[in-house]
């Protein structure tokens, strides 16, 4: 939280200030942004649109440990833990199916960006982490797991592109279980990679991008919205390429300023307050 919350609140306030000096208006639910509840059970407003996924993360970070503590007396064996994970995943799949059948929501605003329907997504990564600690024998074929994960992602892409997402039960329910599973399965393979085999300039670039990733997440949509609001549609591929380069450089520069000027000092305070 000492990494995610301070920078989030800073960018949230800057977004409020930007709206105050523009012709747009704040959504009626703007106070809910302070407690990540703007899309808890209702569609996410257009304001600060990227914050929907951070809301899913923050609620998971809060509820998952509490849920784990509550059911700890029942999880006395590895089989019980696996059963608990399976119950969680199946329960959320059935929940999404029920919501889709009952209210026929839109794929994006009504399911994808609704926190209450997406809390299981991060749990797939938690399962992989638990398996690596408690049942590593199940992960001894990382290449096969990675291939299976990529197959899941490819199946999701084919399904999404072959039907109308807003009319498909599978896209609005099953896909939100299959996609995070597909992203989680390659993790053992990725964890086994040896960075020393990559060129040092590439490793530095990857490391720097990883360091800036959260700040970049918070600021990149500002440049997207500015582009959509202030610039005409591009007329040639050259103009498209130039604008993409400007967007990348602008977003990375803003992320670097946010990281070096705000996020990194907060992290240094955290490390002093809470020694490793």
Set out the fold topology.
Layout: H1 4-20, H2 51-71, H3 78-103, H4 107-112, H5 123-134, H6 142-162, H7 169-172, H8 175-184, H9 187-191, H10 200-230, H11 237-273
Helix pairs in contact: 1-10, 3-5, 6-8, 10-11
- For the report, how would you describe the main beta sheet? none
Apparent shape: globular
Low-confidence stretches: none
Query: What is the average per-residue confidence, as pLDDT, rounded to a whole number?
Result: 92
Order of helices and strands: HHHHHHHHHHH
Helix amount: 55-70%
Query: How many β-strand stretches?
Result: 0
Radius of gyration in whole Å, from Cα?
21 Å
Number of helices: 11
- By helix and strand content, what is the structural category? mainly alpha
Structure description:
With 276 residues, the chain is mainly alpha-helical. It has 11 helices and no strands. The chain has helices spanning 4-20, 51-71, 78-103, 107-112, 123-134, 142-162, 169-172, 175-184, 187-191, 200-230, 237-273. Helix 6 (142-162) packs antiparallel against helix 8 (175-184) and helix 10 (200-230) crosses helix 11 (237-273). It starts with a helix and ends with a helix. The model has no long low-confidence stretch (mean pLDDT 92).
